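How it folds
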Amino acid sequence: MAGVKRFEDLEIWQLSRALCNDIFKLASNSKLMSDYKLYNQIHGSSGSVMDNIAEGFERNGNREFIQFLSISKASCGETRSQLYRVFDRGYCSELEFENLNTQSTVISKKIGAFINYLKKTDFKGSKFNIES
């Protein structure tokens, strides 16, 4: 983690970005966009996954980063729940649902593992670096 200079280099952010884009592509190719409330919810929650990773990273401290990663993980669960509604309302095929559900599950697990790593590491964040 100490060697990572940009949030864009984090695998969890890259995966979250892909999920967000895949949900947008699904909406663009289905009637989901006409279900404005559900579309806005899933669009917002999937974006929140990647945005909270970025915001937490930019705070430059592990405690704050962990807090934002926790919010990101919760947004991932929210997105997954909304995917069930998308599927139940016929806006995606079973295969599309399974692919997006798997993506969100993998991201959630990776965020959880990263949180655990940050809790155990001695590196507390770049804002705590004191130069001599």
The chain has one domain: 9-121. Residues 87 and 93 are 7 Å apart (CA to CA). Residues 9-121 form a domain with the de novo design (two linked rop proteins) fold (CATH 1.20.1440.60).
